Amino acid sequence: MDFRPGPGQVALVEYPGEPGAMTGLITAGGEERIAIDLGAQAPPAPEEPVIVSVYAPDALYRLRGTARAARPEGVIVLEPVHDVERIQRRTLDIGLGGLRVLTLRPVPHRDPTVMFTLPTGRSIVGATLVLSEDASGEGYEVRLSFKDLDPDDVVALRELVEAYTA
Q1: Could you give the C-alpha distances from 22 to 49, 118, 120, in angstroms and in order?
Q2: Which of 4, 24, 100, 108 is most buried per CB count within 10 Å?
Q3: 44 pLDDT above the threshold of 60
Q4: Is the pTM of this model over 0.85?
């Protein structure tokens, strides 16, 4: 595996067939296993296939593997990791209504969950709708609209937009 998420990175954990995704924190990474603390969110089963998305400065990484319940309660271990997909992206524009990104490949889900970190260090995780996806010589320019952002995230985005437009 080329990519190893490190302790403290935020992970989005998706169980195929389950509605919604869970947000967790990478607590450990070893040669063959990655521990993710899901907190009070309980995994649906003791051992299930999962897709774990980790946003790094250079790209989005999607790890496919098997999640096993671990100790303490609320922690899962991703072991083994079967596949790592690197999705290069670059944020072109961001505003209160959504964002525009450039990816090397088409968006794998029509209504993806996005996660990004503001210059203040605040991480925002939110569901989006794909408004458009246009192929270009550099990749795919994707316009995403936010759905139901947390009110505190809206305030943080508003502060960012106002700082850059003032």
Answers
A1: 14, 21, 23
A2: 24
A3: yes
A4: no
